[in-house]
Design a protein that fits this description.
single chain, 263 residues, mainly beta, ten-stranded mixed β-sheet, three-stranded mixed β-sheet, 43% strand
Length: 263
Amino acid sequence: MTKITLIFICVNIVSSQLVINVKNKGGDLIQETLTGEPDKNTISLEFQKLDGTYLKMRIDFKSEVQIFKMTVLGEEERLDDKQHQSMCFVFKFLKSEFITADAMSKLRQKNPGTIRNPEEDKGQERLIMTLGVNLDLAKSISPYVFNMCSKAETLIFSRESDLKAWSAGNNQTYTSLLGAAHQFPMATTPRCDTVKETDQPCVCRLPICIGWYPCGLKYCRGRDSAGKTVSYRCGIKTCKKCRVFDYYVEQKLNCMWESVYKD
């Protein structure tokens, strides 16, 4: 396996970027772009699948927020003129899942054309997005939600459990965060693949996999000039992770990829 060398330098870095080639489960080549911005304490990742689906992810370490912006191509069955639609999923970020923005900014890549393989597959996580986020009030969750999700308009989603976790970790109260969101009737709404009428509300399901990302630092042991055993950073650990988002749509037209219906 070709390694990506981790080099630590002493100058201040505003941002840095890696371009990674990775194959998906079907053998298709995907090119990911990862950017670390230590001055903003954020990391971004983006790529486009062969079917046109585009993902942009941003991690806000200060707010402990992870934002997924998904853009999918329009369907021929749609009755409007939209060529694509965007959705945003905003959820709690676990610091153990990614390297820091500072460490990301110090990564240097050898052999950029190499196809990378993750060292660990973290499997699939299902996220049931029970809340809609009001765009104009989303800054109470993270300052990056508005700019990233403005084109998603009403299709911005989160979870009640995430709001509770954020309120426990910062100065925002749960009540103020809840004021930026509204509840969806997920339990009483059918899945979109069981719905026939295109104007009927339903629960849509959208999967996405990130085939390669730096999920942690590696530490090696050695000896210093005095012969004492020391631990030092010597590389990165890489992972793959898939997520499946369940979320409410006001009409099946916004979820036509789940068009299977058994009469």
